[in-house]
## 1
Amino acid sequence: MRDHDFDLEPGGSSTGDLDDPAALARERALEKVARLLEIERHADAERELRQLLAVQPHDADVLSLLSRVELEQGREEEAKETAYAALAIDAQCVDALSAAAEAHFQLGENSRAEKMLIEALGLEPMNHGLWLDYARLTFKAGQLDKAKRLCERTLAIEPGAMGAHQLLSLIASERKAHREAHTHGDLALGRVPDAVSTHVVKGSACLRSGRPFGARRHFRAALRIDPTDDDVREMLVEADRCCRVFYLPAYYFGLVVDRLPGGPFALWGAFVLSMAVLSSVGADPRVIAVVVVGYPALCVYTWIASPITRLWMKIVPTR
Amino acid sequence: MTPRSHTPASSPDEDIWDAPAADDLLRPTLDQRHDARGFGKAFDPQSLWIASFFGGAFTAALMFAINARRLGRPRQAWIVGGSFFAAGIVATVVVVLFALDQGALTDEGLGDDASRNLRGVSRVLGIVLGGIGFYLQRARFRLFLHEGNDAAKALLPCIAAIAASAIISVALVFPLAVVIAAIA
């Protein structure tokens, strides 16, 4: 649901006293795991965690962390099983509930993810990260009202939660409340100007509100921060396509049509209706001719604008 | 991993909302319909409008059923698709009966006026059913897109559904007209 910072604080069920050599060894191992995760050496981190589990197989916190590491490596089914193993040891382990929710989320099992998050929030109602996870889940499931309220709850607990502003921007964009989308995008950008996600959210808001050049600028900024992000590169190409002269009218036309109930079909209905009205009132044949030629010409242009621009972008690629 | 909050239970911050048990935000609102599973190559349900306009109720039924299966809703495909199909049959029977009442049945089947009526009814019904289908599949298609899937092209299913519904219409209308004429 989000980029996770791994919580390696001592305080798990089997941590015990740090004077205890076993507990001390556990803390050192977890510190090493944290360093490995920071440099994204997930396989090595997993090996360390498995060694820890070989000594203490009933450590719910370590199992929860292992579940997260498995998720990072795209092994959702295994991660789910590991999180459930942690919950079998400690049913009230919030980290395990959260990891199980994340695994369900990534597997598309949204209803079960919600159940896990609600359980976790019942245990830790002041955990803003869990509220934000729940907001993201409901946003994905299409419950925008609830997602918005959950974001507001997140901000009530942690006013600096950048993710909540980002999500509020996406919600507003989807509702075509572009001013609100830009406000939240700017707030997130003001707080964390050097994060890829803030530029991506702001760029998306720009692209949806008819500012393709602004969108391109933000996607470029995001790519400067992380040049390896292929998703952002795709977004930059998309924004750049909208900025090309031949495609620009089609882009704005698309924004207008999107606002019509029924989309292109409504436009087509308007064409049929106007033809019927013009014919019945005996309008000037030149006016009828303009409508007859204009609508198909518009259709043909919108059909060919995208492939021709793509071809053009192969000759002059996005920079 | 979610950051832990160590706010004491007695913190005044907790007064900003109700106790967790009474918090309506903690009431589950997602069920299995919201699970993002069973997706295939779904197309944009907006295509239902145009296809149904040209092909009528049978096209709406076929297109809806095809897309519902691709959106991981096979049961809905049968129930709603079947209902659309039934609506198409009822509309055809009504038009044929109306033609009989108006004396528009000829030895070769429906007369010109009755055929025009049938096309008109078919288009209006197609638009209505296409709209219903779009409304029913809209949310599921959004989830499909949010899972990172790309919408498939609807052109081939559209053409296939329109061709199939033309065959169904012919297979249904002419025998129906002959049977009713024979009875009359």
Note: Chain A touches chain B through 51 residues (CB under 8 Å).
## 2
Amino acid sequence: MTEEGPSWEEVLDLNETPVDQLQGVKVKGKDLVIIRHGDRYLAMDRWCPHQDGDMAEGRIVGKSLKCPLHGFMFSLDHGRGLNCPGFNLRVHEVQVENGRLSVRLNSG
Amino acid sequence: MIPSIDLHRGKNKIHENTRNDTNSEQTVGLLSNPVNKGLLLKNGLVVDIAQGLDGVADIAIAEGKIGAIGQNLEAGPDDQILDLSGKIVCPGFFDIHVHAYGGIAFADPDSIGVNLGTTSMVDAGGAGAYTWDEFEALILGQTKTDIYLWLLMRAAGIYGFQDTWTGARSLIDIPINRMLDIVEANRDHIVGLKMAEFAALGLGPMKIAKGVANVLELPLYVHIGELFESPPETYTEPTLNLLEAGDYVTHCYTPCPGNLIGKDGKVLPEALAARDRGVWFDLAFGGFNFSFDVAEQLMHQGIVPSTISTDLQQINVTGPVYSLMHVMSALMAIGMSFEDVLERVTVNPAEQLGFTDKAGSLKPGMPADVTVVEIQNGDFVFDDTTGKTRRGKQLIAPVVTIKAGEVIYPNRELAEDESNWSIESSMSYDLVPPHANLLDIDQRKFIGKLLEGFRVLNWEGVSLHESFHNTRRQHGIDLRRAAEAVIHSFMTSRFTPPIGFFLATHDRDFVLSRLAQVAASERAVVRN
């Protein structure tokens, strides 16, 4: 069976990704932030939709990613703004194979 | 480090008393009545700037009021005694800029009030003329913390960050007659009018706001600092020139465009002139509007806030604001003393807002609003809203709060819990939330009527707002119960967004479908 949609892009060696830290990466020209939250890996848009705060400079609070500029917080589960209704970050699919993390862009 | 702070008014002078035991005892006779079950605060260091008290003393509380302050007061047989040795006993803290109501506020306003040592606070523009009655129904009398309002010139109040205020360009959107009626009937709760100096609005609405404030003989409370863009021109200077003694500039240390620092890097002369005319400067730290660099620069150049406030709202309660005490501690890290910050959260707001009969001091006969703190020593890092930090050696921490005689212990977790600050997390998109099962039959019937009206409306805020209120009037249901019926149909926490404007931000089909589910449910509670 052939998967449709964007392709998987290998972006990181997990051994180089510290736990609970954020890392900015570029995938096919798109800026993303890679989040290693415990055993979980996530990829989200890097720039805050409010005023382009760099989410890679933000911090994880509970189950959300907090923008360093104005404190807007986005769910790690679905990217919706938790304290800023109407503002959302796109969450991108990730997969791990052989210690490498790949991302498939969500163009929605 | 700031060598000395030039406080520009006599009433703002740094408290110079040395810490001597108070030897005065003032009573209103309550102690002579031993049948009153009361509370005795023993051995605390009482610091009450309004009375010039600064020493170890006892405070007797009865019937929700301060009974006496003095040495070796004795408890009645049924009195509760709190030994506050080593703690600092202050008048209840007063935060004149929070968001307790509306789309950026909290599920539990007390979580940022009495639970964090603040006994009185002013909501800064959560409600305008269209939404005053929702504020009144859902907030007033519903909290332990006393809550007042800066009534927003924009009729809908503040309901979210996508609100750009551009509607305030139009006079039609400022229902002045309605504002006048609301203020005249509610002067006990409305302390002034709030208006934002946003470049997109131009100066016109600010002039209208100042005119309305003058007609109502209320202070104008002016937000400075652009939130969404960097315009080529701002109107802070002419706005400052409009202000008179008793008006306010809030966010006085904002780093955002339109702040109090000119292009030459110096304080705006209009700001100094306003200060000299008697205009007040309020801190309102916020999520956008406090810079240590700006604060230090302006302090040196003569702009010192007369009130310290937080601007606590959903985006900043998990940092960098956290609480009023945290903000006070941040100010101490850049040179203010404990007495400096204390007067700015007690006597100053009480005097400026005309509340000296009910807040700001521990005079016998006053409401027993008491904030007990301790000063922790250590190495503390404070963040501003630009990502910069300062280190401080002292942190003010809450010990216990007395509100109208009731003992309340601090609970920071309550404020910072996601269910308290995220409407989105509280939204129940897939299932009818459990709270909807508590709605009674009359509330469900109201939801059904609301659904009928909504089906034929354009899906925008004012239409839904008016339909909600017309329907609940026709149905004869109390506003609080009507609003709670809607809130509980969608959320698991009791947030208080303005109902119509909140619903308009959600998908029409989703809202109609949910209202239909709730209206049709048979699991209604029958109330006797």
Note: Chain B touches chain A through 23 residues (CB under 8 Å).
